[in-house]
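Comment thread on ticket #2218

A.B. wrote:
> Attaching the input chain for the structure job we discussed in standup.
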Amino acid sequence: MRADVITPAADMPWPVVSPFRMRPGLSKLGAATDQQPDLFLRDAQAAAYAGEKRRVLDAVPGRGLIGEADPAVLQAIADAYAVQTGVVLAPEARALAEGLQEDFVILHDEADAMRTRFLSVCFPSNWDPAEKWGLDFSAIHAPVADNALLQAGGRGIIDMAFRQARMLRHVWLLTPNGELAQHPETRRTRWEDAVDAADASGGRLIDQVFFRVERQTTLPLPALRRGVFFIRVLVAPLSGALAVTPARAAELRDALISMSDAVVAYRGMAAVRQRLCDELTTFRPL
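C.D. wrote:
> Ran it. Output below, let me know if you need it in another format.
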């Protein structure tokens, strides 16, 4: 894991709540001010993220950029980024892929639904972007465990987030590795590897785990009959994120306990949930 792409623990969002539910969790973005969150998140790791994206794009040509992007939409993204950050990027797919710390997906507002028609995704969280091309909201979320709340609100979510207003949501995950790029075809540290490493050292599993957050924002472009979905991945060692405030260990334990077995299985954590909960009960920063 490259240290220069690790987000400082104090800067990590903490969207952990219990009981845990797969839910939309959307909030509206306001104008860019000190009090309002921004569409994009640019920080001190920007150059390192660009390097990681470049590595992914060069390693497997065609994997990170899928479909054809409308020049007008790329221009709108570049314009929005320049307005917020002051950084001017060329309105081209590769330039935006490398220049934004966010991945992004362009949706077309078609006769029957909004469908994904271009994906710039270098840092998927164990899903294959190529499998999402051409899908609508319902099909994209069909594999998600306990997806009833998401699916029931799908039409309203799409209308609000991609036709009307900029929106924000956070999704959190626990992973046994800190790589930004977690494509399912890439071999990485798995949960069993993390357990073996903890047992071999006589240490805690928690110290082998990373806290991963997807900061998701939307940019409606109704005049173009398009919408853009941005995904900013942030990763930090779990032990560091827990150490920020004393209450976090209990909050995470309660969230894990409240997860349904289906969600735990979907996230690949069936074999480690109880051990993590036990360690969270007695957690102390090292």
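A.B. wrote:
> Thanks. Noting for the ticket: The radius of gyration is 19 Å.
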